[in-house]
Amino acid sequence: MKTNFFSAKFIFSCLFVVAISLLSAFAIYFFIVPAAFAPMGLEGIATMLFETFDGKVNLGLINIVLNLPLLVLALFKLDKKYVIYVVIFNVFNSLFLSLLEIVNAPQYQIVDESGRIISAVFAGVMLGARAGYMYKLGGSTGGIEIIANVVQKKYPFLNCERIVSLICLVLMGLSYFVYKDVTSILLSIIELFIYEKAASFILRDSREAIEAKIVTKNPDELRDDIVNVLGHSATIVDSKGMYSGEGNAIVFVIISRRQIAQFVKIIKKYPNTFIYYTEVQGVFGKFRANKNEPIELRRG
User: Fold this and answer.
1) pLDDT value, residue 206
2) The pLDDT value given to residue 48
3) Does 3 reside within a domain?
4) Which residue of 46, 116, 122, 273 could cross-link 35, Cys pair, CB 3.0 to 4.6 Å?
5) What is the pLDDT of residues 240-264, one digit of tens each?
6) Strand pairing class (234-240; 247-255)
7) Gap between the Cα atoms of 2 and 81, Å rounded
8) What gap in Å lies between CA 249 and CA 73, rounded to an integer?
9) Inter-axis angle of helices 59-77 and 144-154, to 10 degrees?
10) Residues 227 and 88 in one domain
11) What is the pLDDT of residue 287?
């Protein structure tokens, strides 16, 4: 499906990317720079160069120079929508980093090692949220991710995430020679761990439910209860017991978590029924039966 680059939705998404880039710049400038450790990706290289130059070269300038060749690569190799998001993010991320440094904005004051840990945790949360929202929009933060996307496009079955993680770990190891401090490596690992958790939380769909699989000899009666009492539909599949060789039906149903007790009470009415259920996330499509009108079931 083609993207309408002049639609209100796309323009709003671009403005949202600008806001994300501000969050990113704030996390790097306010937490990472004073705590003296390297975040993951090209931003880690940028902060290490900033430290090497003793802050005499603008961090935003370093960041955009490092990303520029990869942005050009993305322009020729990747989807236009993706490229637009990545370009907007990197331009404004670098711009905000430059402005924060130029105006000498206040930074988090590091008093002791606990302050550095706090910086790593909050930076991980903010940068992870940044990445999660960019992925949701269909973009990314650029840098090493561009390389991963280009490689993934050519070799779809290659595990690029593992390659990216390996590169990040190598950069963390190299940061020792810049900061001369093993603690800096440990802070980078903490930041990466929190980063991945925060990104996963943002990407995780908020619609949670319970998936149940029911093996029963009473599918019609059970169907009445599921539809009319619980207000959900279900899928019935014929099956055969491996041990007994007898015919059964397997009912697949998704219910709300609040309905577990009610669901178990229904199942107890059928003594020859076996069930198990698990929590699921990311429920899409038609989840409920019509909750406002009674449903007339068709049999046979």
Assistant:
1) 57
2) 94
3) no
4) 116
5) 877 777 888 888 888 877 788 888 8
6) antiparallel
7) 9
8) 54
9) 10
10) no
11) 54
Residue 251 lies in a domain: yes
Burial class of residue 240 (count of CB atoms within 10 Å of its CB; 0-12, 13-18, 19+): exposed
CATH number of the structural domain spanning residue 250: 3.30.70.120
- 159 and 259 part of one domain: no
197 & 217 share domain: no
What residues make up the domain containing 162? 8-203
Quote the strand ranges of 53-132, DSSP E.
none
**Is residue 296 included in any domain, yes or no?**
no
Contact 96, 21 (CB under 8 A): yes
For the segment 57-68, what is each residue's pLDDT rounded down to a tens digit? 999 999 999 999
Q: Do the strands 208-216 and 274-281 form a parallel or antiparallel pair, or are they unpaired?
A: antiparallel
Residue 201 token pair: 């939380």
> Is the model's pTM score more than 0.90?
no
Q: Is 12 in a helix, a strand, or coil? A: helix
Question: Is residue 48 within 8 Å of residue 55, measured between CB atoms?
Answer: no
**Cα–Cα distance measured from residue 128 to residue 131, given in angstroms and rounded to the nearest whole number:** 5
pLDDT confidence band for 1 (50 / 70 / 90): low
What is the rounded average pLDDT for all residues in the chain?
Answer: 85
Structure tokens of 218? Answer: 């009473």
**Residue 288: is its pLDDT beyond 60?**
no
In a domain? residue 102? yes
Query: Which of 203, 226, 246 lies at the terminal end of a domain, its last residue?
Result: 203
Query: What letters, b where the CB count within 10 A reaches 16 and e where it falls short, cover 53-79?
Result: eeeeebbbebbbebbeebbeebeeebe
How much helix, strand and coil, in percent to the nearest 5, is found in the chain? Answer: 60, 10, 30
Q: Are residues 45 and 114 in the same domain?
A: yes
Residue with tokens 């980078």: 188
Whole-angstrom Cα distance, residue 147 to residue 254?
Answer: 39
Angstrom CA distances, 78 to 109, 142, 150, 163, stand at: 41, 12, 7, 19
